[in-house]
User: Fold Cell division protein PomZ from Tepidimonas sediminis.
Amino acid sequence: MISIAFFNNKGGVGKTSLVYHTAWMFAELGYRVLAVDLDPQSNLSIMALEVERLEQLWPDGAHPKTLFGAVEPLFGGTGDVRPAHVETLGERLGLIVGDLALSRIEDDLSTEWPRCLEGRDRAFRVTTAFWRVMKAAADAHEADVVLIDVGPNLGAINRAALVAASHVVVPVAPDLFSLQGLKNLGPTLRRWRETWAQALPKADASLGPQPSGAMQPVGYVLMQHAERLGRPTKAYAKWQARLPYAYRESILGEQTHTTVVDPDPHQIHRIKHYRSLMPMAMEARKPMFALRASDGAIGAHQDSVQRCYEDFQALVQAIVARTGVQSAVVAPSQSEREAEAGAEHGLP
Assistant:
């Protein structure tokens, strides 16, 4: 199972929007996708679903159709994880819905983590709960790829989420705070990876398969960069120039004594801030690159929609190349998309 966590302990870089649009673009290009909302703030679920549907999924009392509902028996001491409900967002895209109640299990996850090194069965069951739920749901959904949204912190929930991740994509903004976030994130990822590698041999065979906890760095996505005449504005250029060094030193643990080449091979792609499109996309409950004239995307907005599509298409293609995601479905061609858009405008 190829599972990709989008992770940066610096909040506000546009991580959830990135996961949402990347998931939809994977589906647009023919991949079967399972998105997993592992942020207790549930921002991905809030972005993807209507309020009326969320009210149904988050009633008073138990929440059996959320991620918390799938792991609750284990953490409540009444059983083990159970199959998760996968909310259908599109023909190929499903979502395991998040839940604010996930915060309740943070202490248990924290307590059991060091006990994995002692080979305790429950410690492994607790630490791999998210992975086992995702794996079963991905198999049932026949997913080509699992995309994981997590909160901006280095807590026990995110550690369990990263144990479930085969790959990690780091969204960053060109600012001081993202650089500081990288400095915290890199050493923490390496420590989690090393601890899990030490614990794995101690898991009893009766527990069945275990996640590798590879957390393989895929690269970083530069978010919301500002440009003028095709070049970064002065305010951002300073920090943008330092990101390649910070990524190598902090995430990869490399020493950077030489000049980093441009373009940086660890930069997966740059995603602009499509400010004018996001309000329309939120209203329409669809990704920005899928907006049509009926959604209010007319005139210059249509050009922005097309550029947004091209941005996310390039991003997904780069992620596919770096992770080895496979798909048997042929993606729609550019001419087919243009014909569809023309039909909506009443063009021949």
Summary: The longest strand covers residues 216-223. The CA atoms of residues 32 and 144 lie 5 Å apart.
